[in-house]
Amino acid sequence: MPTPPRLLILCTHNSARSQMAEALTRETARRAGLPLEVHSAGTEATRVKDDACTVMAEVGLDLSTHTSKTLYDVPDPWNFDYVITVCDSAAETCPVYPGQTVRRHYPFMDPSGGSLERWRAVRDQLGVQLDRVVRTIERGQPLPESYQDSPAVTAQ
Which residues are catalytically annotated? Predict the structure, then answer.
């Protein structure tokens, strides 16, 4: 049996956007019946933010067991089929991956310090984009270069 594709989502602190993206991607892949190994990491490890846990619980996804980690804390960190950065800082410091790794940068607004409505908006925008990612992987198509379907993703 072939090994499932591997996807890594990177952010600066692995405390909010990348954590939400990891959970959303895993759930979307599970619902699609797509065997996809999903991890998230940060350029620095901190802690998973309470507001991330709150808004994800609202959609039935539990982040209570998630921990903030760096790239070196994920299994086989240099062997990913897909690497997605969700903040500009992580995109700038993302290591170079071998040629077979597809990298995409989808910058999302940082919800930290904002209202729960802001957190929900980022969660929902991540969900739209990562649904597109899972569907394209499922079809064997190239990952979207950007989020053309979600023009408000970086709006303040």
Answer: 11, 87, 94
